[in-house]
Amino acid sequence: LAVCITRRGVYMSRHLARALSSSLPSSSPSPSSSSPRVSRASRIMSRASAGAVATLSTPERLQARVDACNTITAADYASYVPFIVDGHAVGALQPWFADALVAACGSDALERSSDGAVRTSASLTTPDARSAAIAPGLRKLHDDGVITGWRDEIFPCTMGYGREPLLRVERAAASLLGVRAFGVHVNGFVTLANGERELWVAKRAKDKQTFPGKLDHLVAGGLPDGMAPSVCVVKECGEEASVPEWLAKQAKPVGVVSYAMNYNGCCKRDVLFCYDLELPEDFVPVPDDGEVESFERFAVADVIERMATTEDFKPNCCLVIIDFCVRHGYLTPDEAGYIQLVQSLRLAND
Description:
The chain is 38% helix and 24% strand. By secondary structure, the chain is of the alpha+beta class. The chain is built from 14 helices and 13 strands. Strands 7, 8, 9, 10, 11, 12 and 13 form a 7-stranded mixed sheet that branches.
């Protein structure tokens, strides 16, 4: 599986590089070759409608939740304007936002090249200089109502996790810039005396800027510039669920999921570091920072059914929970659609 993922990662990285190059239309793959999720869903529906399969398997029923996070198409890639920082294609801009960004930041910060790409000025030779030059423009776009949900958190723009940032920007601008973003998600669970597990599920506050009122993990959060994922987990556990530090530090890193979503037209490319945190049966999380309305504990089987039959969960949470279910044996290779589901949890967004 590791080899398959690695090979797929190389392919997807090359695909994105081609999509963000100056020869976008000619080098982007055709929609039919870049949308396996569509053909897979079509095959499932055809089998069901033809009576070939009386009941879809659980992995097949959950596939739609993963597909909802992987909605970027070849046509989307072809329509985006490459965002080039220090010679590297780090993002993808909607054409209207590319125009607004250049206008707001000015020619001292950004240039429009002959191929249409938006590039940082060649005179800005360091990450700090580029970040300082672009920051006022991003703030202006926020003041004008273009960038909403300002967080006062800084995200790095990099060519991959662990690499030096080429630019640092306000978190609220990340999706509009189409840059790769990172986050942490924690599966908080309890093991009952009979061996069954239950998951703590949060309900997002109704005034959240994104996905208000949706169901969520125990805790989750974006990974700010310069912060290690393990440190971010402890921070988010305390802020969102009042989990004490000693307990939060017991969270175990268990892998990553990644996706590429067309989010309100934006190229949203996220990598989520997944953690499992086993909690005492008598522990009850308490919302602390206003981002969560309430917490409730559900049997894992009930969470699976809720994901399979509704859109109640925040979309990217489904990927992390499905990964939890795979690792703990709630989904098995005996079921149709298992391989496709597991493979689709990870795209090459390193």
